Amino acid sequence: MFILKNSSSISQVAQLRSPKFRQTGSNCTLSFWYYNYGRSVGAAEMHLLVDGLKQPTVLWKAYYNEGNQWLKAVIQLGRLPRPFQLSLDKISLGFYDGVSAIDDITFENCALPPPALSCEGANRFWCRDTKACIDSLLVCDLVDNCGDGSDEDNCNPDLQCDFENGLCNWEQDVEDDFDWIRIQGPTPTVNTGPLTDHTTGTARGHYLYMESSEPRQFQDKALLLSPLFNPSGNGTCIFRFHYHMFGKEVYKLSVFQRTVSNTKGWLLWYKFGNQGNRWIRQTLYISSSKPFQILVKGTVGDGFTGDIGLDDMSFLDCTLYNGNLPTISTTTSGTSVPATLPMNNCTEKEFVCRASGHCIQMIQKCDFRPDCSDMSDESACVMEVCNFEDKNQCGWYQPALEQMSGNDSIHTTNLFKWELGRGANLYPGQEKHCPLIDHTTCTAEGWYLFADSSNGEFGHIADIATPVISLTGPKCKIIFWNYMNGSTIGSLEVLCKTSNRTSKLWTQSGSQGPQWNRAEVFLGIRSNFQVVFRAKHGVSYMGDVAMDDITFEDCSPLVIPGRPCTSEEFTCANKYCIPKDSLCDFVNDCADNSDESPAI
Fold first, then answer.
1. Which helix (H) or strand (E) covers residue 76, if one does?
2. DSSP letters of 179-219?
3. Backbone angles phi, psi at 407, to 5 degrees
């Protein structure tokens, strides 16, 4: 079906209507191929027209000439319980020159689940009227998976939030940079964020989103706090939510669990980057021997096309805790560390938790997962995220300077070394080869780390290293931003150092232009090692190397869950559980390569 130029009338609209459909199942998607080519071809929109709703919902847009090619569009319809039609609208704004066409329209997974003669098993639920047999994980998740609503009957409203009437019992954190926003319909910026909510699939429904446009800056954070929950005992508390991460500059969404109120807690899950224009369901299994709270954190990326959406958040097999989480007194590193060790029965091969005297294995120290209740096992380690603000080096240290510190006769003033700097402190002319602004705040007041080439000589090296990291997980990587501008830049290297070997993981040399550049280095599973950044001096002082926003992503080791793996997970040979979409992806997610076996 296509449209050719035939008139120049103002605001002329061509409409192509679908038949009327009675309803759809919860996994329904619509796909089609479209062609929108020409000098002034104009916009096209797909509208959803639901019986009883006056306002149409925009499901898809093509704004402009997209070249002489067919492109595929995929629209997530989800559960639509009322009769509806679809309308493809082509709008002419007075001068129309081009061709618009549509072909190969396909509906997939749009039927309700089929009835079953029986529905046995602890992990199954038998729908009341439709007699469908569904996974019990779909019960009380704010989605009518049965088609008769029976899987959403008799649910505790305190364990669910669809944001149709506010934030329910979730709260905005008061110590973050900005708040999540409750909204209907599309977010204000085009080409980012959802067009509809997840609950209703229409512009009438509400959801939360994180705005990434100004005045927001890179790595600004918005935190949402759950109600408090009782310890999970021998079972697990299940957290389900839907997220939307669409846009070229989408950065990160993270979920944390905490048992102490004045800490961030520990990372349960995160997702990084553009995930497409769709709502995605995520299920997390939570175990805790203490009352706990969930934190959902959105982090702003490097531009305005980075909006993130949240909707339909629910808990299963969890009970609310009527009390407050404890607090701990903090030192500058955020943990309580007594000067003397408490009474304990730990061996020399074990680490003593500073507050409780509890013993943990030494391999659990500095592994990006707090195993002590006071997190003292992670206190003398490198921090997961370092932006160098407040002149904090986050555990990074310079081995050469520490060796010299005991010798008073050696002065380090003119050594080629790493130091903290900012644009406000540069001397005239230095901005030609050193950053005027940091990467975190994009201001002259923000701090970064740099190796000053006005010190030292050609060929000198400056190393800055982490303390020893005991163990990392299979997806561990380090992400950092570097600035290398100047006519005589040397090089920057990332090294992995163990007790008997140093290997080069990444290197970059020469001028890279007057801007901050992102770099990513895969670490994977490693044990008892250090990460070292090495700057090499160029032939003159016109070439400083700078770094900012160093992040260890997804580095905590795998943990064997105290439960069988679910139908959405793969059971590794070593009993770890990983998502099934991690199979055969050329990444050793299991840590024993069983997820990459040719036998799968």
1. strand 71-76
2. --EEEESS-SSTTSS-SS-SSSSSTTSEEEEE--STT--TT
3. -110, 105
Placement of tokens 């903290």 in the chain: 420
Residue 328 contacts residue 342 (beta carbons within 8 Å): no
Using omega within 30 degrees of 0 as the cis cutoff, is the peptide bond preceding 215 cis?
yes
User: What does the chain come to in residues?
Assistant: 600
DSSP string, 253-307: EEEEEESSTTS--EEEEEEES---SS-EEEEEEE--SS-EEEEEEEE--SSSS--
Cα separation, 251 vs 246, in Å, equals 10
Cα distances (Å, whole numbers) of residue 155 to 131, 133, 143, 151, 583? 19, 18, 12, 9, 34
3 state SS of 488: coil
CA 445 – CA 461 distance, rounded (Å) = 28
| Residue whose tokens read 């370092």 | 386
Q: What type of residue sits at position 302?
A: D
Closest among 223, 126, 123 to 170, alpha carbons compared: 223
The domains of the chain, with CATH numbers, are 12-108 (2.60.120.200), 157-316 (2.60.120.200), 352-376 (no CATH), 382-401+415-553 (2.60.120.200), 559-599 (4.10.400.10)
Q: Please give the structure tokens belonging to residue 599.
A: 């036998």
**Measured CA distances, 495 to 367, 397, 448, 533 (Å):** 18, 14, 20, 6
Q: What is the pLDDT along the chain (600 residues), one digit of tens a residue?
A: 656 555 555 557 788 999 999 999 999 999 999 998 887 777 789 999 999 998 999 999 887 788 899 999 999 999 999 999 999 988 765 555 778 889 999 999 999 999 999 998 888 999 999 999 999 999 999 999 999 999 999 999 999 999 999 999 999 998 889 999 999 999 988 889 999 999 999 999 999 999 988 888 888 899 999 999 999 887 889 999 999 999 998 989 999 999 988 888 888 888 888 999 999 999 999 988 899 999 999 999 888 888 999 999 999 999 999 999 988 754 333 333 444 667 778 888 888 888 788 888 888 899 988 888 888 888 889 999 999 987 888 999 998 876 665 444 445 557 889 999 888 887 777 777 789 999 998 888 899 999 988 788 888 999 999 999 999 988 899 999 999 988 888 899 999 999 888 999 999 999 898 899 999 999 998 999 999 999 999 887 777 899 999 999 989 888 777 778 888 888 888 788 888 888 888 878 887 788 888 877
Can you tell me the distance from the alpha carbon of 509 to that of 538, in angstroms, rounded to the nearest whole number?
10
Which helix (H) or strand (E) covers residue 451, if one does? strand 448-451
Amino acid at 237: C
Place of tokens 């559980």: 577
Given its phi and psi angles, is residue 447 left (phi above 0), alpha (psi -120 to 50 degrees) or beta?
A: beta
The residues facing 3 across adjacent strands are 100
Q: How far apart are CA 418 and CA 512, in angstroms?
A: 19
Residue 87's contacts (CB-CB under 8 Å, 6 or more residues apart) are 15, 16, 17, 18, 46, 47, 49, 56
